[in-house]
Amino acid sequence: MPKDFKTGLESLGNGCFAWIQHDGGWGLANSGLISDSGQSLIVDTLYDHRTTRVMLDAYRDVHSTGFDVVVNTHANGDHTYGNDLVHGARIITSRAAAEDMPDPTKRAALLRDWEAHGHYGAWVHETYAEMFDFEGIAYAGPTETFDEETTLTVGTRELRLRVLGPAHTRGDLIVYSPSDRVVYTGDLLFADAHPAIWAGPVGNWIAACDYIEGLDVDVIVPGHGALSDKTHVRAMRDYLVYVRDETRARYDAGLSEADCVAEISLENFRHWREAERIVLNVNALYHEFSGGTHKTDKDDLFRRLRAYTKACACCGGHHHGDTP
Ligand SMILES: [Zn+2]
Known about the structure:
35% helix, alpha/beta, Metallo-beta-lactamase, Chain A, binds zinc ion, seven-stranded mixed sheet, 2 domains
């Protein structure tokens, strides 16, 4: 690669496609289409009806016979809320992702009443309300689940679905097409952006990077960001190891989460988007290092996330670890 990074359909050859959303930030996820001999499989839908409709129209331009299967790479709404627009399709995900699949009507309700939900409500509002419309979306959960690994046939093609979570979320999986040398990673890969550790353990995510790097692939479709290759996977792995080690030293020294976040330099990742995710990642790591006993005040966590985001905006996202 690298390719032009803009919203649109990318042909990966031989009936394999990626729908890429610029700029890959909060809620702006990617998707995939595999079309073969009149059958098709979609990897992930998008965050709302408007964005999903635009994508499905582009998919219909290259695949005219209906969509048979949706695979959700994990449970987050920016990869699942468009499921209800793919009428009649089988919806497949891991068992853990199925258990965590969120109800979009709750997101709509939260945004109608965000001021009553403290810093969390304010963060959801300022992050998503302008760009997305969650009204009128119906929950369309999985019709089938699996553990560990399964194989799907689309036309003449064999696709391998493999669970590599818990990492970003509890149920992360990848969709690998060996014959195309393509893998759709979901949010196990953010390209040129800080990842968000919602679940962990971080060691599983590092192992997932190693697994993806070991695949025989040329093109890697990340969950967010431009079309990628293995250099992006290695960079993600480096970030996870670095943040784990930097956080561990400060956890062991007894620093508060806020002090730990303030001390960690992100200079080596200064060109990546969403530096504020360090707030979430330090929180997840403190939780992990404590064996689950570390207490988190959700309102304070999102207060600090908002503050870090605003500080980043002041310096053009070039953050150097000086959070307020
Ligand atoms: Zn995502």
